[in-house]
Inverse folding.
């Protein structure tokens, strides 16, 4: 029997949800952008992100994309794609995700089976609203190597090691980026126009890349 748990006003949490129901909701909600589903062994959370969440996820995506453009790194950007594995009975949608080191493994593929293909190299989480489920544990089970989490104030870069995430000062998948620098740019984004902000970051990454050559 499915039961409803109390949650914040932009979340609904259901228990006793079958895998087939979860997969059906993913298909049914494809035409409803912005809905985020998290599934963990029969518990389903449906979240509707708030405006600050959407703004920061786009800005963090711009940081990744400018960095890979300036370093001529091929990537595959898959946004909020649903990642799930029936054998683990787990699934979620990141705010943004990218194949970087394993881009060639998924180039041109419309369907990616995580029991065969590697997971995305980087997932981005904006946590203005706390999830009722342990999303980091789901990422770890899926084997995502790196997760960036930003709560609107602080950024943490997590790297997967022996099945658990450890905070680190520098990104492994994008070594030019340190936690303190990404956090600084996210903070200054609130006092600048987005175009000027991106231009400033692009100039900074060019100089940093030049210095490491």
């Amino acid at each position: 029997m499915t039961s409803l748990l109390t949650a914040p006003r932009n979340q609904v949490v259901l228990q006793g949800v079958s895998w087939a129901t979860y997969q059906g909701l993913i298909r049914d909600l494809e035409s409803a952008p912005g809905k985020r589903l998290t599934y963990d062994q029969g518990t389903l959370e449906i979240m509707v992100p708030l405006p600050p969440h959407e703004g920061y996820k786009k800005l963090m995506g711009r940081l990744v994309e400018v960095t890979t453009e300036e370093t001529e790194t091929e990537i595959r950007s898959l946004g909020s794609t649903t990642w799930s594995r029936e054998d683990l009975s787990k699934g979620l949608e990141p705010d943004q995700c990218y194949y970087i080191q394993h881009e060639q493994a998924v180039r041109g593929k419309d369907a990616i089976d995580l029991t065969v293909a590697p997971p995305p190299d980087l997932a981005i989480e904006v946590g203005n609203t706390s999830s009722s489920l342990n999303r980091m544990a789901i990422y770890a089970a899926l084997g995502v190597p790196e997760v960036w989490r930003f709560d609107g104030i602080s950024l943490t870069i997590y790297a997967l090691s022996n099945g658990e995430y450890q905070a680190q000062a520098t990104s492994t998948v994008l070594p030019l980026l340190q936690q303190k620098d990404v956090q600084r740019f996210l903070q200054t984004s609130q006092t600048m126009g987005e175009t000027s902000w991106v231009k400033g970051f692009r100039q900074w990454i060019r100089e940093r890349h030049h210095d490491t050559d």
Remarks:
- Residues 3-7 have pLDDT under 50 and may be disordered.
